[in-house]
Structures are given as C-alpha cells and as structure tokens.
Amino acid sequence: MNFTRWSARLPGTQRRAAARNDRGSVPAARAECARPDQPDAEPGTPGADEYRHDSGSALDDLPAREILGRLPAPVALLQGPGHRVAYVNDAYENAFGPRRCGARAADVMPELAELSVLPLIGQVLRGGTPRTVKSRRTAAGASYTVTCTPVAAWPAAYPDGTGPAPSAEEGVLVHLADVTDHAEAAERFRASERRHRDMAVTLQRSLLPQELEQPDDLRIAATYQPGGTDAAVGGDWYDVITLGAGRTALVIGDVMGRGVRAAAVMGQLRTAVRAYARLDLPPHEVLQLLDGLATEIDATQIATCVYAVHDPNEGHLVHASAGHLPILVRDEEGTIHVAAEPTGPPLGTGGWVHTSGTIALPPGSTAVLYTDGLVERRSEDIDEGVAALGRALSGATGSPQVVCDRLIRSLGVTADHDDDVAVLVVQHPARTGADAELFHNASLDLLGGVEAAPRARAFATGVLSSWRFPVELRDLGVLAAAELVANSLQHGTPPMRLGLRRTDRRLIIEVTDGDDHLPRRRRAEPADESGRGIAIVATVATSWGTRRTPGGGKSVWCEFALPQ
User: Fold this and answer.
1) Residue 467's CB: how many other CB atoms inside 10 A?
2) For residue 49, what pLDDT is reported?
3) Which of 50, 106, 411, 547 has a Cα at 20 to 30 A from 456?
C-alpha cells in the first residue's frame, strides 16, 4: 500500500494542512528554502515561500509507513466493516507475531479479542469518533491502553504486494500503549489499600462487641457497615449491657470524623459507658459523666450518643440523648413512635445538664437505634431520612437480624456507601402458650414490724414452690429473700416491697425500700451480731447488686441461674 499521500492522525496530534505550490511536492531531503541570513527575500519570491512552508512540506512528504514503522508502540491498520488487516508495524509483530494482511482481525488477531476492543473498533468505524480504553489485560499478563482512530477511505494495494487491491474503504488505526508497569504498580497500590482498609475495619470491629449479650426478655441484633473505600475507620459504636435484675442498657453512638483518632476516642467512650453502666445510674447521669470524660479525652472530638435502659417490670425504655437521632419504636400493630425530647448537645461540649425521657416498649414491639449514616443524605434533609426509616420499619417483620438487613437495604446502603452505618434492633417479644409459662412475676408489700420477715419467707416459699423449682434452688431462694428483707427492715424505710421474677434462664429476687443508702458487702468480725446478710446473699446467689430508684430509695437484688 502506498502511504505517501496519506497523513495518519496519531493520538494527541492534529492533521496539518499541506501547503503546496504550483511546482508540486518537494522531497524532504531536497527541499530548498530561504535562509534567515537572506534579508532580501521578499514576500512572494520562491525563496520566501519555500522557507515559509518548509516545515509543513517536510512532514507531509514523509511516508506514513516510515512514521508508523518507527513507533515503539504496536500499531495496526484495519480496513472496512470486516476489519481486514491492512498494516501492522514492527513493534506490533515483535509483541504479537506476524499478521497476514487481508485477513479478518477476528481470525488472526486474538490479542484484540483478549483486550475486548473489537466491538470498539466497529463503533469507531461507524461513528467516526476516536475512542480510548485504558489498561486492558491480555492473557499473557501484559496491559495496554488502546486508542482507535478513524481513517479516511483510500485506494491502495496491500503493503506486502499480496492479494488483490481492495476498494476504497474507511479504516481504523489501532494504537496500543504498553502500560504493564503502570498497571502492576496500580494493582500493588490497590492491594496495599485493601490491606490497610481490612486492617482498619478489623480494628474498628475489634472495638465493637464481639458477641451481643442476649437478655432474657429481649431479642437483639446489630449491624455495622464501614463506609467508603478508603482506609480511614469511623467512630460508630453500639453496645448491649446486662445490668442485672432483668434490666438491660442499650447504647449507640458516633464520634464525628474518621481515622484512627476517632476510633480511639470511640473505644475509650465505649469502655467508659460499660464502667458507668455498672453503677446502674439513670441514663442522663451516665451521659453527664460521659460528657466530662469526652472533654478530657480530646476537646476537639465531638460525639453523639443515646443511652437507654429497659426494665421488664416497667414496659418502657428510659433514655437520654446527647445530640443523637431519636429512637424509633414499632408497636404490634405496625404504628411507628418516635422518642420525643429531651435531647441535649453532643458529648464533649460541656456545660449541659442532661435529662431522661421514656418511650413505651410493650410486648410485640421493636425498637431501632441507629447512627446518622443510615438516614443522612446530601440531597435531602435528615428528617426525610428518619421518616423513610420509619416507613421501612413499619413493614419490617421477622427476627431482629432480618429487620436489620431489611432496613439497610430499604435505605439504600450499599458497599459503596460513603459513611459508616451502625444499627441496633431490639425486640420485646409477645409470649404466649408454653413460652409464656416460663415468665412469671410475684410481689409482696412489706408493712414492717416483727411479722414482716416471716411473711416474706412464707410468701417466697409458696411462690417458688408453685413455680416448681427444685428443692435446693427453692431453699436458696427463700434464704436470699429472707436476708434481703431483713436488711431492708433494719436499714431501710417504708415503703418496702419484695419482688420475685422468673424467666426462662434465671430467678430474680428484689427488695426495694425508701432509703437511698446503698448497702455494701463487708467482712463481719466474729463478735459482730450483724453485717453478714449481704455476704450470705453474695455467696449463695449467682450475682447481686444495688441501685437507686428514680423516685428515691433503693433496690437490692440477686439472681440465680436456672438449671438448663
């Protein structure tokens, strides 16, 4: 094929218009021009014209075969709708081997099929617009960036002289740039990023509960999904803490920002919450302590948090919020209830007195605690996101984990989500039939006086016998109830109440009175006539504890694990 009169449009170049004079083309090697030292060359003279057009004439007269042949990158010229091979340069043959001209590219150029550019060549031929695809890999492991450029029709013979001369048809110039080194470097970088992200996510997950505590009266599941694809960890966390006497603390929070520092603050706050929860304080007092601690940890970090306590005897959640999104509760009929105020400022701001509120959590209801990554979108107000979550929750049924997954899907959270998401789903199941028979409550008001202790022992004996406990467990329960009542009669004030509660896993004995002085376990001397009651309870029971009640007074309780 004669390429002498054809100008190739290589990627990144522009076709230059050939300036011709009436005398025709001048070979580049013999071109004459007016030298710069000829000041008498007037415009219009042969010398001046040749000097003005010298660079253009020299480039236009270079054979395209010579230009393409010297390129270090593989180049192929394909002609017509069948993509027949019209030309390949030496670099192409060195990379892929000789190619027979006149044959269809699909038959003799398997590398183009491996690079998935044959459909692209057809698009370029039909549309007349250059197209580029980046970093395509062949079966041999080499990577190429391929540019396909349309070429105007030309009549010529095959460059090797074989075969009949094709008719004038348009073609496509295929240019392959070897980017194997760049592709391998990019893959190493991506692999490094994946390792760093995996390490970051592992760090984040290690700071979260490895296994959620499952209270007797609640069913709980949680989901954490890291946001984005970078290696920065977030500060979202959740926790479930068993407080004793059937009560459960539920926590969810979010440290603003991303990175190891945010995760470190999150870990310290989560540990502090568990420590404060052991004091069995009201929710607002826990947040008050956390607020001061957050300021001490890092005054530049701000966190939001919800702390809620469920008491099976009360049938509601007592909660306090530090700048966090409201708890949503779905009742048995599917109606959504939103936890109302109070909501204080985020942790770490200082100078605020938090308060507690309540929201009903009756049997058959489901509560959802979540972080802003679930409902916050740049394109809409966050209240719309909360409303969308409520609509998703209203139709979400099944186990807590199923509800978690449905909420994540309904809110459009995918692996590419740009923010961390933590969701905590709490169900208070409605029990019927044989399951309900495993849960009972009984209580006795103690009026005081010498007859209170015998009445308490008789009441405990009757109730525990009716619940068909083994004799040994019944006797231990009666002993613990008698000691707790005796302690309350001696050190407490009316009103006093003895409460017994059984679940499918434990027996709970609780005595409340009007005095807010919390007893503690101490070692009694041999000559002491008192001070052994709490020690006896701590010895015979599985666990025991004390707490102040909201209306004033205190509660002293103990638990016995039931044989399975």
Assistant:
1) 17
2) 44
3) 547
Model confidence over 162-196: pLDDT tens digits? Answer: 444 444 578 999 999 999 999 899 889 888 877 77
d(CA 505, CA 246): 11
pLDDT given at position 528: 59
Residue type, 541: A
Structure tokens belonging to residue 36 = 């710069």
Distance of CA 299 to the CA centre of its chain: 26
* Cα atoms in the Cβ-side hemisphere of radius 13 Å centred on 423: 27
CA distances from 33 to 49, 57, 401 (A): 8, 11, 85
pLDDT digits (tens, 9 = 90+) for 307-346: 999 999 888 999 999 999 999 999 999 999 999 877 889 9
The answer to whether the beta carbons of residues 225 and 413 sit under 8 Å apart is yes
How many Å apart are CA 18 and CA 7, to the nearest integer?
10
Supply 224's token pair.
Answer: 């954490």
CA 126 to chain centre: 44
> Which 3 state secondary structure label does DSSP give 245?
coil
**412's torsion region: left (phi>0), alpha (psi -120 to 50) or beta?**
left
Q: Around Cβ 539, how many Cβ atoms within 10 Å? A: 11
Closest by CA to 424, choosing from 234, 240, 214, 213, is 240
Residue 287 parent element (H or E): helix 283-297
Q: Given this model, what pLDDT does residue 10 score?
A: 42
pLDDT tens readout for residues 130-149: 999 998 988 888 999 999 99
In this structure, are residues 86 and 173 in contact, taking their beta carbons and an 8 Å threshold? no
Q: What percent of the chain has pLDDT over 70?
A: 83
For residue 303, what is the enclosing H or E element? Answer: strand 303-311
In this structure, what token pair is assigned to residue 244? 């004793």
Q: Count how many Cα atoms sit within 13 Å of the Cα of residue 274 in the half-sphere of its side chain.
A: 15
Specify the length of the chain in residues.
Answer: 564
Closest CA to 556 of 564, 56, 541: 541
Residue with tokens 């005796």: 486
CB 194: neighbour CB atoms within 10 A?
12
Average pLDDT of the residues in 344-355: 85
CA gap 534, 523 in Å, rounded: 10
What residues are paired with 75 via a beta bridge? 175
What's the token pair of residue 64? 């395209």
Q: Which long-range contacts (CB under 8 A, 24 or more apart) does 525-530 make?
A: 530/490
Q: Give yes or no for residue 381 having a pLDDT over 60.
A: yes
- The per-residue pLDDT for range 544-559, each reduced to its tens digit, is 999 998 888 999 999 9
Nearest to 401 by CA among 360, 366, 362, 364: 366
Q: In this predicted structure, what is the pLDDT of residue 60?
A: 63
In whole numbers, what is the pLDDT of the chain averaged over residues?
Answer: 83
Confidence class for position 197, pLDDT limits 50, 70, 90 = low
Q: How far is CA 375 from CA 116, 229, 562, in A?
A: 41, 19, 42
* CA pair distance 146, 152, nearest whole angstrom: 20
- CB count, 10 Å around CB of 95? 18
